[in-house]
Amino acid sequence: MMILALELQPPELYKHVHELVRLSFPEYEICQEIAADADIYLRISRIKSGPQLYLHAQLQEGLRISRISCEYPLDMNGLQEDHEISRLTRVFVYRLLCQHLGKNINPYGILTGVRPLKLLHRWLDQGDSLEQILARLEQDFCLQPDVAERLAQIAGNNRPFLHSAREAKQKISIYIGIPFCSSRCYYCSFPGAILTDYTVQMKPFLNSLRQEIEVMGECINELGLKTENIYWGGGTPSILAEDDLESLFNLLAQYRLTSTVTETTVEAGRPDTLSKSKLELLKALGVNRICINPQTMQDTTLQLIGRGHSRTDIINMVQKVRDVGIPIINMDLIIGLPGEGMAEYQNTLAQILELRPENITVHSLAVKKGSRLAAAQGKKLMHELAGEVQTGIHYIGRTLQEKEYQPYYLYRQKYMKANVENIGYALPGRCCNYNIQMMEERQTIIGLGGGAGSKFVNPSDWSLTNLHSPKDPLAYTLHLPEQLARKVDKLKALN
Ligand code: SF4
Q1: What pLDDT is attached to residue 365?
Q2: Spans of all domains in the chain
Q3: Any ligand 1 atom below 6 A from CB of 337
Q4: Residue, of 54 and 365, whose pLDDT is higher
Q5: b/e per residue, 42-53, with b = 16+ CB within 10 A?
Q6: Quick check: ipTM above 0.95?
Q7: Best of 190, 302, 373 for a ligand 1 pocket test (most atoms within 8 Å of beta carbon)
Q8: Checking phi first, is residue 441 left (phi over 0); if not, alpha (psi -120 to 50) or beta?
Q9: What is the pLDDT of residues 266-289, one digit of tens each?
């Protein structure tokens, strides 16, 4: 592994610049120790003196040396000044890296976070127009014009779904995590457990989940909160047996957690976990959105990544969902799967469009630590494939919009092949409300079950506290008492 030595003065510059450096040199290990044998040296210093900010940097790669120095006047105070110093530092480092490498290192400019749209909504809250926001993104945050326009378009599309502070005090969503899968897909590091014995593994987990529904249900009722959306994720929640699904839905109803719900989604990523009778049951229980996730419609790739289903299984399952009458189908696609290129992306998209799902979510392959793909692919290979992934993402985005699909939420992932984004598209009037609330973090989400994340949102300033339950079912059960106590405390503290 090649080494990039990063010398920072002061050392806390790390949190501002690390991600930009990683994006620029993905195949290097970044090291903050003094390293005599490093392949690249990057030294950055920042001094604030009165109302002036001074930045100096030198990047040495073999015999090539790039240096820049800048001086910025500061005319603000307090938190505002801190934010401006952070922005100026990132712009400075971004320019140095682009200059040294002779290319744009990040289409998102100095934005490296997972949820860039939150910034746009903050500006819209302040009364800024989309035109002002576009100009600021390009000039002050160095975004490529097409990326800035895409963000502005998505913010415009999902803005009507965001609640006022008063509404956000009353409405919540519930996420229920079932952390079991029938087998492990090669690219995934998520599943808490592979289900080999339903009775032995699932029953104790469900006892804990029931306990969690009861305790949180009481708390939600006591606080007078209304549940707007319920989202069953995982893992693979459709792996649940029909009698367990029914009893869990009944328990939610018993605690009045379903009476105000307008959207209930069940992820059924693997069609081998769904039968016609299970679909009929889900429909009868009020499920109105279901995720049938092919990832690709190429049988060779599906085998290679261990999905355990074929393209024909997907087509048949979509037909069954249509027959049963669940009104919204989401289909997930992954761009960047091994062995695939533009020809496969085009063919997969053409097949999906024939099925006309209401929602299509396009993911760029995130090679996560711990997945089999991460072990199989070195960082260098990922970097080399980045260009094709980006071209594929753009092709799919363009084609979907020509076919009436509109982008309505977006998030980025770290360790992603091309450092691009995941985007949810919907036919007109078919956006998934839960996804918007979850991404824009404008509503409290109570996570129940294994691997479930809770988001406690304070509407007075939209500040956020996250809490995650263990995804391993045994650890989930073991830590449930303290997790439940913390969830109840945090929810009560907001109300
Ligand atoms: S179905 Fe989803 S959660 Fe389960 S192993 Fe595959 S990608 Fe991971």
Answers
A1: 80
A2: 1-105, 106-161, 165-494
A3: no
A4: 54
A5: bebebeeeeeeb
A6: yes
A7: 190
A8: left
A9: 999 888 899 999 999 999 999 999
- pLDDT computed for residue 333 by the predictor: 96
Q: What residue owns the CA closest to ligand 1's atom 2?
A: 235
Cβ of 184 closer than 6 Å to ligand 1, yes or no, is: yes
Phi then psi dihedrals of residue 378, to 5 deg: -80, 165
Q: How far apart are CA 379 and CA 435, in angstroms?
A: 30
The burial class, CB within 10 Å (0-12 / 13-18 / 19+), for 188 is: middle
471 Cα–ligand 1 center, Å: 13
Distance in Å, CA 350 to ligand 1 centroid:
24
The percent of the chain in helix, strand and coil, each rounded to the nearest 5, is 45, 25, 30
Closest CA to 330 of 301, 366, 369, 290: 290
Span 205-230, average pLDDT: 98
- Which two structure tokens, joined as six digits, stand for 321? 């969902």
234 CA: nearest ligand 1 atom: 3
- Percent of the chain, pLDDT > 90? 82
Question: How confident is the model at residue 291, as a pLDDT?
Answer: 97
Pocket lining: 334 vs ligand 1, CB cutoff 6 Å: no
Query: How far away, in angstroms, is 182 Cα from ligand 1 center?
Result: 9
- The finding on whether 22 has its CB within 6 A of some atom of ligand 1 is no
Distance CA 491, CA 167 (A): 16
> Cβ of 487: how many Cβ atoms within 10 Å?
22
Going from the Cα of 116 to the center of ligand 1, the distance in angstroms, rounded, reads 26
270: left (phi over 0), alpha (psi -120 to 50) or beta: beta
Ligand 1 geometric centre to CA of 235 (Å): 6
User: What class, spelled out in words, does domain 1-105 have in CATH?
Assistant: alpha beta
Q: Of 406, 443, 402, whose CA–CA distance to 157 is shortest? A: 406
Q: How many residues does the chain have?
A: 495
For range 453-466, the mean pLDDT: 96
Contact 304, 343 (CB under 8 A): no
Between residues 426 and 381, which one has the greater pLDDT?
Answer: 426
End-to-end CA distance of the chain: 51
The CATH class given to the 165-494 domain equals: alpha beta
CA of 213 to the centre of ligand 1 (A): 24
Distance in angstroms (rounded) separating the CA atoms of residues 293 and 288: 16
pLDDT given for residue 495 in this prediction: 84
